[in-house]
Amino acid sequence: MNEAPIIPPGVVGLPPMDADRPRRAKAESKPKGKRHRRRTADRFGVLNAFLDMTAGALTRAELLTWLILYRDIKPDGTTRTSQEDIAGRAGITSRAVRFALRRLVAFGLVRIVWQGGFRKGASVYAVRPLPRQQVKGETHDR
Rounded distance, CA 120 to CA 23, Å? Predict the structure, then answer.
């Protein structure tokens, strides 16, 4: 049985490495293709558009709610997140999340795909970077 060496009290330092322990080979990473780069570039493009054109007009709760929903987007373009989860992650109240979601829906930044609830699970949302007014060439003032 190969036991680890015991360091006596008062001695500072690390025990010698076992020379007979086999080294692990470096895991070869899969080469990332153009498809992966495109998906990442698209996500950053959406995030950049949101930060450049929209974020300045939102309250803190609205901004955090949108960012959390955006972070959770699945490949199908939707996100399924409970309001309680958003509140906990953003450090705000559930009431603030509900109010923020109502305003984000009114601005056209979030679309409710499926309304969740008690015994129904979390709601499903679709997230957009620009409000409807900016997409049509207008801007919105609060």
Answer: 50
Measured distance between the N- and C-terminal CA atoms of the chain, rounded to whole angstroms? 73
Q: Look up the CATH number of the domain holding residue 118.
A: 1.10.10.10
pLDDT in tens, 2-25: 676 676 777 666 656 665 556 666
User: Where do we find the tokens 């601005």?
Assistant: 107
Number of folded domains in the chain? 1
- Tell me which H or E stretch contains 47: helix 34-53
3-state secondary structure of 80: strand
User: pTM, whole model, 2 decimals?
Assistant: 0.66
Distances (CA, A) of 106 to 21, 57, 84: 62, 13, 21
Q: pLDDT > 70: what percent of the chain? A: 66
